[in-house]
């Protein structure tokens, strides 16, 4: 019976551990601050109370949760000789990873839908993207994440583990954990590809087509109006590529590339969630003005008190 799993981690070298610790610690603090800043800015500034920014704030919240599933444990593990996680902890990681990942995927689709209506059907924007629809989309995101995660985990909990318990990574995820089971896992591998893999590939194709349609629509407009829309869209598309790229390679690529695997996992858990706030906050004018207002308001209220 296996009661715990052991992570082999990113590297064995002692000097490298310290470097990696500092690197990931800084990244994780950046993820926390950056994404919290977006959530707070959107919540506190009435200029940003629109579906696009609500969805963006939700995306940031999910990013924050998503990287908190793996990063803190990984950072703490840099200094422990045996990087152990309990069986239940491992299942929890898998569950939360797919829960937040699935939700993020639907939020990204909702953001594309929002832009599609705003750009291709601007006259109907306020009626289509009313408050209820927005709340509905967010609820659908969490619901989909939950269903997806439960459907994946339902198979994993019944797997027999009888000895091998070394996970060659720094967190638990299905493709790696399934490999350790003492049974023929061929059908399970197919199941992961059919669920996570198909979900990511289909959503990705759908999103790329949607953004292509939006871009074509923008091209037909006078250029002064289209430049702002274009910069928003570039941010969206960059985030989509960064999120789905690693996802597709991890879940849908049938021939795992061993050396690339860990790198993708790092990318997925600490790089993408950090780039999100950078892309949106540094490039988005409305966001930047809102942050300036927030700072001014802060300074003013401090002077008064
Ligand atoms: C997420 O979206 C919903 C619906 O628009 C909104 O009410 C909520 O404030 C958003 N959450 C965050 C953290 O901004």
Automatic annotation (TrEMBL):
KW Repeat (keyword) present: no
Domain named G-protein coupled receptors family 1 profile: residues: 34-280
Transmembrane segments: 18-40, 52-71, 91-113, 125-143, 197-218, 230-253, 265-283
PROSITE patterns, per database record: G_PROTEIN_RECEP_F1_1, G_PROTEIN_RECEP_F1_2
Keyword Disulfide bond (UniProt): yes
Record localization: Cell membrane; Membrane
Main location: membrane
Function noted in UniProt: Putative odorant or sperm cell receptor.
Family of the protein in this entry: Belongs to the G-protein coupled receptor 1 family.
Name the record gives this protein: Olfactory receptor
Origin species: Ursus americanus (American black bear)
